[in-house]
Amino acid sequence: MIRAELGRLVSGITLPVLLVVAALLNALAVYGTAVGMKLDQIGDAAPAATQSLVTLGFGATLFAMIFGALSVTRDFGTTAIRRSAFLARGADRLLGARLVALSVPAAVFSVVGAGSAAAVTAIVFTANGTEPDFSGDTLTALGGVAANIVFATYIGHLVGWQSRRSVWTILGLVGYTLVLETLVISILPSIGRFLPGGAGQAMMIDSSTTDEILPLGAGYAVAAAWIVVLIALGVFRLRKTDLS
């Protein structure tokens, strides 16, 4: 069943198109930011500059989130979800199988998103006659970028089980991520740090100098808590519908 669900998730052009767009935009973001850094004169600031550039891979989270949402809302749009639920012998089992199968495309997004940012960072440093510093905080940040992308894939997917409409789900996720959540994190950091985006920041950024960002471990814990809550909400709604 998991193999069949994985086949549905990766079929079509949605996955490769979103992967390519995410990688290209990551590359443009890293290159554009690096141009203003004067890397040929960076000196002792190389570690901080490297960390700053690799965190731009965070941009791929939006595309991973959109893929996660589309991977379920498109089935509701075509009513294929009913057949899938029947073959899985229940909507709960279908949700579980989808969550396991989703780990593969989520991992692919993670590798492409974090990898493209790291690769372009290395290229622009080398092109300016200096060396990037992929150690310490930079590795922590890069790992946080990768984890954020996986997290975003599951957030989008689980929200899709609630909303079930592709266009409105995508518009809602984009608006929430780029506008609403950003404003809350900026204006009310004591609240915003517990939102998915706030947890994402904590995975990537050294929080030792500020109270506005959660510690690294707490960021991962809050992210996991969001996933658990959304899974519970998904199961609850499925049991209240004719898919159960």
Describe the protein's topology.
Layout: H1 2-10, H2 14-35, H3 46-54, H4 60-78, H5 80-87, H6 91-127, H7 137-163, H8 166-187, H9 189-192, H10 196-204, H11 216-239
Helix pairs in contact: 1-6, 2-4, 2-6, 3-7, 4-6, 4-7, 4-8, 6-7, 7-8, 7-10, 7-11, 10-11
Task: Characterize the structure shown.
There is one protein chain. The protein has 244 residues and is mainly alpha-helical. The protein contains eleven helices and no strands. It has helices at 2-10, 14-35, 46-54, 60-78, 80-87, 91-127, 137-163, 166-187, 189-192, 196-204, 216-239. The mean pLDDT is 88.
Q: Whole-number average pLDDT? A: 88
* Class inferred from helices and paired strands: mainly alpha
Q: Which series of helices and strands comes N to C?
A: HHHHHHHHHHH
Number of strands: 0
Assembly state of the chains shown: single chain
**Which residues form runs of ≥5 with pLDDT under 50?**
none
Helix content: over 70%
Give a quick account of the main beta sheet: strands, pairing sense, barrel closure.
none
β-strand percent reads under 5%
Approximate shape: globular
* Gap between N and C termini: 17 Å
Q: Helical element count?
A: 11
Radius of gyration: 19 Å
Summarize the structure.
Helices cover 78% and strands 0% of the residues. The protein has 244 residues and is an all-alpha fold.
Which tags fit this structure?
single chain, 244 residues, 0% strand, globular, mainly alpha, 11 helices, 78% helix
